[in-house]
Specification:
The protein has 240 residues and is an alpha/beta fold. The protein has three domains: 144 residues, P-loop containing nucleotide triphosphate hydrolases (Rossmann fold, 3-Layer(aba) Sandwich), CATH 3.40.50; 48 residues, no CATH class; 36 residues, no CATH class. It contains nine helices and seven strands; from the N terminus they run H-E-H-E-H-E-H-H-E-E-E-E-H-H-H-H. The protein has a five-stranded parallel beta sheet, with helices on both faces. A two-stranded antiparallel sheet has the order 4-5. Strand 2, helix 3 and strand 3 form a beta-alpha-beta unit. Helix 6 runs antiparallel to helix 7 and helix 8 runs antiparallel to helix 9. The protein is elongated and about 105 Å long. The two termini are 57 Å apart.
């Protein structure tokens, strides 16, 4: 997010999806940025916890209208150019009016029934999230809260442990420093404990015991040491 305050905004927005009958309006959340800024991940995170969240990547008018009318769903539109797709699908009226309670859209479903009986009116009010790569279009500016997704680099942190343990725990430490830096010492303490456990385990292995014996023999008897070294070579020689 561009600022810490936006997390409070997102949390309040999620709660409002469960109390929608209390409100006259529901603001769109519009995430706008170039590729790979976390728009889709953020939108999915919201609809996973929002009321009846649905993630869509197309604008099939009949499907969107039924999601709104039948399920009162929270809809996440994850498309490159939302307004262009809405025009192509004939769903501009849905986007323009979904933010306000009481608005309906007409659809001619039964043309054979004649005038006044051929049209069905659908209630399309509901919470909406949008993620696009293009600016807001189609006069939607007054209906949305636009959130520009800034580029966020992970903090550069040295490996917190030796060997592969340091490689695999470094990403976790980077994430902790980014989102909850006050908890970093706790994770570092855990990584140090894991490293010590690995060190103890290795010290009890057969290879470690042989190496320990070799160092002991080298001090006391050079002949025995040469024999033991040959034995080690035989033990570690690749088996065919």
């Amino acid at each position: 997010m561009p600022d810490e305050k936006y997390y409070d905004l997102l949390a309040a927005w999620v709660f409002h999806t469960y109390l929608l009958e209390k409100f006259q309006y529901s603001p769109y959340l519009w995430f706008f940025a170039v590729w790979e800024r976390g728009k889709s991940r953020t939108g999915k995170g919201l609809i996973y916890v929002a009321y009846r969240g649905v993630h869509v990547e197309s604008l099939r008018d009949a499907y969107i209208v039924r999601l709104a009318n039948d399920w009162q769903a929270t809809i996440f539109f994850d498309v490159i150019d939302l307004w262009k797709k809405a025009e192509k699908a004939g769903a501009e009226d849905v986007l323009m009016n979904r933010f306000e309670k009481g608005t309906v859209v007409p659809r001619v479903n039964y043309p054979d029934r004649g005038p006044y009986r051929d049209v069905v009116y659908y209630n399309i009010f509901g919470p909406t999230v949008v993620a696009t790569n293009v600016p807001i279009g189609g006069g939607l500016n007054t209906r949305v809260i636009q959130i520009g997704m800034p580029e966020e680099d992970l903090p550069d942190i040295p490996k917190p442990a030796f060997k592969r343990l340091g490689d695999i725990t470094r990403p976790l430490l980077q994430v902790i420093r980014l989102v909850k830096p006050e908890r970093e010492p706790i994770l570092r303490e855990l990584i140090a404990e894991l490293e010590e456990e690995k060190r103890k385990t290795l010290a009890e292995s057969l290879d470690a015991k042989i190496i320990e014996a070799l160092f002991f023999l080298r001090k006391d008897n050079k002949v025995t040491f040469r024999v033991a070294r040959k034995l080690l070579c035989l033990m570690t020689w690749p088996k065919s």
